[in-house]
Amino acid sequence: MRVALDATPLSGGTGGVPRYVRELRRGLESLGHIDSYLYLTDQAVEGALGPGDSWLERKWWLAGLPLALRRARVDVFHGTEFAVPYVQVCATVLSLHDLSPWMDPTWHGAGVERVRRRTPWLLKLGLATMVLTLSEAVRRRAIERFGLRPERVVAVPLAAPAWMRPVPMEPEQEPYFLYVGTLEPRKNLPMLVEAWREVRTRHRVRLVLAGRRREDGPVFQSGDGLEVLGPVSEERLLALYSGALAVVYPTHYEGFGLPVVEAMQCGAPVVTSTDESVVEVSGGAAMHCAATETGEWVTALARMVHDAAWREELQKRGLARAALFNWERTARETLEVYKSAERFHRGPV
């Protein structure tokens, strides 16, 4: 079976989707069951095949990609971010990471407009042989919203990288709460900062924000216990997770919530929202607060400061929960989706 993955997300650098593409490739290669593996994109990505020189092939999703798939004799194309070719020349799998493009318009800038318009039509026209979600919660919502056939939609969870493990850290003179992720409207960070500032009036605890700021994201200035780090290296991220008093993730909505699993795998207690995907992923190993209830967050953060036994209990639960997720499992279950897509594409024998 020759499989091609859309490598377009890798042109954007950091973030959850690029990490998904990289880790999935590593996981698939480790299985040793795929005869050939390709990256395809019309963007500048090292090692990826792209369009030819003709003007027609530069119309990537309409002509360039279908032609590239034919030339490479690909059996299954995995659209890793909301899209598949406009002309179906092989079996296709579309990753529908979440439904946020069709929810609150304040969560996204103009950059998501193409996804908002294009993806529903790709699904309606049946150009995606299979649809891949990251949680059962998103799977259910996608089936309802787009009228999809349940047997064509499969939930396959993500995982933290294997190198993410607790590392010994010297106790901080002033402990800190840690947020990891993009600074964007959907993550609900102004509420988090407000709740933390209330807790800080009684407890000397810092708040560290690690991740790139999207253009439409909230702007915070470092100072008075707030540290805005921007993107951090993998080594720094591991140390931040391992040393945190707790990881805080107040998101309004997620398709999975990878920082929750990463934090648990590094032994950090987690306080997060009641979003249904995050609740599904955390599996009872995190403390949950309603995203819009600042008072609940104040109470939860204060408890994290003074209740060492509760932090230890959450650490134990989190480590056990995170152990259920790994990239070998993700790759294996994704490979089964590819096989199903191939069978559906061939039709009845």
Describe this structure in words.
The protein has 2 domains: 2-158 and 327-346, Glycogen Phosphorylase B (Rossmann fold, 3-Layer(aba) Sandwich); 176-322, 3-Layer(aba) Sandwich (Rossmann fold), CATH 3.40.50. It contains 11 helices and 12 strands. The chain has helices at residues 16-31, 60-71, 113-124, 136-146, 189-200, 234-243, 258-265, 276-282, 294-306, 308-322, 327-346; strands spanning 2-6, 36-40, 76-79, 91-95, 130-133, 153-155, 176-180, 206-210, 226-230, 246-249, 270-273, 287-289. Strands 2-1-3-4-5-6 form a 6-stranded parallel β-sheet, with helices on both faces. It starts with a strand and ends with a helix.
Keywords:
349 residues; alpha/beta; Rossmann fold; 6-stranded parallel beta sheet; 11 helices; 12 strands; elongated
Secondary structure category: alpha/beta
Helix content: 25-40%
Order of secondary-structure elements: EHEHEEHEHEEHEEHEHEHEHHH
CATH structural class of the largest domain: Alpha Beta
Taking the alpha carbons of the first and last residues, their distance comes to 18 Å
Strand content: 5-15%
What is this structure, in a nutshell?
This protein has eleven helices and twelve strands. The chain is α/β, with parallel strands linked by helices and 349 residues long.
Layout of strands and helices, then pairs:
Blueprint lengths: L1 E5 L9 H16 L4 E5 L19 H12 L4 E4 L11 E5 L17 H12 L5 E4 L2 H11 L6 E3 L20 E5 L8 H12 L5 E5 L15 E5 L3 H10 L2 E4 L8 H8 L4 E4 L2 H7 L4 E3 L4 H13 L1 H15 L4 H20 L3
Parallel strand pairs: 1-2, 1-3, 3-4, 4-5, 5-6, 7-8, 7-10, 8-9, 10-11, 11-12
